[in-house]
Amino acid sequence: MVTCLDDEIGRVVAAIDKKGLRDNTLIIFHSDNGGTRNAMFAGQMADLSKTKLPCDNGPYRDGKGALFEGGCRVAACANWPGHIKAQTVDGMIHAVDLYPTLAALAGASTAKCKPLDGVNVWGTIAEGKASPRHEVIYNVEPFRGGVRQGDWKLIWRTLIPTSVDLYNLAEDPYEQKNVAGLHPDKVAAMQERLNALGRESAKPLALIYVGSVGLAHGKPLMASEGGKGTPLAEHDGPAITDEGVGDNDIHH
């Protein structure tokens, strides 16, 4: 897949060069998530229990489907001759920042748009200035949520038994030391932020479907413990909330 992308993007760039448009073209390339480390997120309807997934997210923890940095922090590149300084940028940027950034570059107004989550980060991309973004919302779901504010990152799993992780990414970028127990006020404030976002959010479509369609006949889709139906997963397989967490969780 990577080879195919390299070849086809090369054809696009060559066509832009041929048309004499390269100096007036901004090219941005980024991934949508980290590599898959959990077979549940591999997208294959097959038994992968004995398959070693080849993805490597470097020192970052876990991968696609998880709220750890290995699943959320991705590489990106931007190129525009004469407009972007050659450099490495480590400022906080979210994918939703691309829309207001590109709109501003094109001279388009966003005044009549619905409220935007993104901010204009062109100064960060082009000149390496400090990012205007100070918060990243990873997920707001009924069973888990994640938020980063500055260097602090919270992962909250709300299903019983609930657990919460708190990391200082400046000191612990690979999320090895859960310090939730040392900063209860920070945990409470960030949990309230996720709760506030949850109150603003639309109801998850999956839950609406299960409630209105899946349970319309009065019987649950999932077999009971003593039922004879075929389970959707092995009894010792990963749960949808399983992110490879261990004994260092702080349970609330």
Describe the structure.
The chain is an alpha+beta fold and 252 residues long. 25% of the residues lie in helices and 13% in strands. The chain has helices at 2-18, 69-72, 98-105, 122-127, 184-200, 205-214; strands spanning 27-30, 76-79, 135-140, 144-149, 152-157, 163-168, 250-251. The strands form 2 sheets. It has a 5-stranded antiparallel sheet, covered by helices on one side. Strands 1-2 form a two-stranded antiparallel ribbon. A hairpin with a 2-residue loop joins strand 4 and strand 5.
Write the layout of secondary structure elements.
Layout: H1 2-18, E1 27-30, H2 69-72, E2 76-79, H3 98-105, H4 122-127, E3 135-140, E4 144-149, E5 152-157, E6 163-168, H5 184-200, H6 205-214, E7 250-251
Antiparallel strand pairs: 1-2, 3-4, 4-5, 5-6, 6-7
